[in-house]
């Protein structure tokens, strides 16, 4: 029986600012909270057996309405967090991201490279697929995390992919075996 992992990029969140909130506690906007509630029919349809999330507030808030509708807790895993880009808040972050996407091995001091993120993301997704074999698992996470997980499974992604990914976005992966690459059978 195949295992399905439904990756959910968080809904629209409060933009980062120098004054905070920090990346860990940054919430969804009012529109993002509405989007999270609108996701419930699409996310309950595959009947998830478990709901996991990045520990970041915006990711939890995105999957919480679905977990509530299913009567399931939202469990968090640090490995599902967003990319640690090694940047303090800056208004000119995009040039740093372009450099990282040009050189996937590049890491700023204290941060992780996109190659390192791919390894972390793929292992986190595989671990959930192994733990919930034959079931559907909902995973709340982040755009760069999802793109690098997909890249780790052989799906072509680029900086443009991240830039064009909507908030929220859904990617359904079907594993026949957690040690092999999944089939991406739905994206919305």
Automatic annotation (TrEMBL):
GO cellular component, one term: cytosol
SUPFAM superfamilies cross-referenced by the UniProt entry: Phosphoglycerate mutase-like
Coiled coil: none
InterPro entries to which the protein is assigned, alphabetical: His_Pase_superF_clade-1, His_PPase_superfam, PGM_Phosphatase
Gene3D superfamilies to which the protein is assigned, alphabetical: Phosphoglycerate mutase-like
Any one Gene Ontology molecular-function term assigned to this protein's record: phosphatase activity
SMART domains reported for this sequence: PGAM
Domain of life, source organism: Bacteria
Protein name in UniProt: Phosphoglycerate mutase
Species, as recorded: Micromonospora sediminimaris
């Amino acid at each position: 029986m195949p295992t399905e992992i439904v990756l959910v990029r968080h809904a629209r969140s409060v933009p980062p600012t120098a004054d905070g909130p920090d990346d860990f506690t940054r919430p969804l906007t009012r529109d993002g909270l509405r989007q999270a509630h609108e996701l419930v029919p699409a996310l309950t349809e595959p009947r998830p057996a478990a709901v996991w999330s990045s520990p970041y507030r915006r990711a939890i808030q995105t999957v919480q309405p679905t977990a509530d509708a299913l009567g399931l807790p939202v469990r968090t895993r640090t490995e599902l967090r967003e990319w640690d880009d090694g940047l303090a808040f800056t208004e000119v972050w995009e040039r740093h991201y372009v450099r990282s996407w040009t050189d996937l091995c590049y890491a700023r001091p204290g941060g992780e490279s996109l190659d390192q993120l791919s390894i972390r993301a793929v292992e986190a997704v595989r671990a959930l697929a192994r733990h919930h074999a034959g079931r559907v698992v909902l995973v709340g996470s982040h755009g760069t995390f999802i793109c690098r997980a997909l890249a780790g499974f052989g799906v072509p992604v680029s900086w443009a992919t991240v830039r064009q990914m909507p908030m929220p976005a859904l990617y359904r992966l079907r594993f026949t075996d957690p040690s092999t690459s999944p089939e991406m059978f739905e994206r919305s």
